[in-house]
Known about the structure:
Elements: H1 2-37, E1 43-46, H2 56-64, H3 73-77, H4 79-82, E2 86-89, E3 98-104, E4 111-119, E5 122-128, E6 133-140, E7 146-152, E8 162-171, E9 174-184, E10 192-202, E11 207-210, E12 219-221, E13 224-225, E14 228-232, E15 237-245, E16 251-257, E17 262-266, E18 270-272
Antiparallel strand pairs: 1-6, 2-3, 3-4, 4-5, 6-7, 7-8, 8-9, 10-15, 10-18, 11-14, 12-13, 15-16, 16-17
Amino acid sequence: MRYILVFLALLFFQCSTWSQTSKNHYKGINDLLLKHCLSKEVEIVEIDDLDLETNDSIKKPLVDELSDYRHFGHLVENYDFFKESFKTIDLNNDGKLDIFYSGYLGGASDSYSCIFINEDGMFDLVFEGEIGSRFLYAIKNKNNTIDLVYFYLGPFAPIPQLMRLDLIKVENGIENITTVANFMTDIESPNEFFKEPISFKVLNPKYYLRSSPRIENQDIGYGYKGNIVKEYSQGTKGIAFAKEVDETGRIWWFVFLDDKYSGWMSSRFLEEL
């Protein structure tokens, strides 16, 4: 039994490390894109800044109700190890405490995310995320409901891969998912911001979005070339938030495009609108 508990503790530590690393590395980009994409009338907060129910005498009996859900039996049984991954709060403003979970779910050390809505003491699983996902932010609405921002990093991989920010809104027991932004795991954060964002369109018939402010076109395998994220055509529109000059003197803009992809584009063939 002691070895099982040690194993679970190591998995929990790895998931916590994943969360902290991804949270710190992408925080600036996440904050920037969320503030741009979401209504100015909502309040964006980090998960731990919510008014969560942390009293174990209240929280544990609620978590115990999840024991029959697939993968959750061993999490409930080892509540003391995993209790920090269970977050308890009223999400839909109906006066009952709901549960959302981000962490180890069995079979692998990657993170998963789930939302359980309290229906008169019985919990309904309304959202189950993909492997490599975590809730990092909450959106506090004027009607006192709370939406969750789901950060999909994906399972560990040897090459850069696409990440995604989704807004999860639960209404009447049904989840509505809206993608907020997409970017690559190797994206470089901007440092020199414009006073005001710049609207632009692409002039060239073929133009690349890149994960860093420089040209890299080497073959890195699995169909990827250098730091290229995606190819765009003439007329594509977007918003630029920041700039950086590379060693050749080329000016790069950190952009958010109309298809919700974000990264770097050379400003040479971008026209201000």
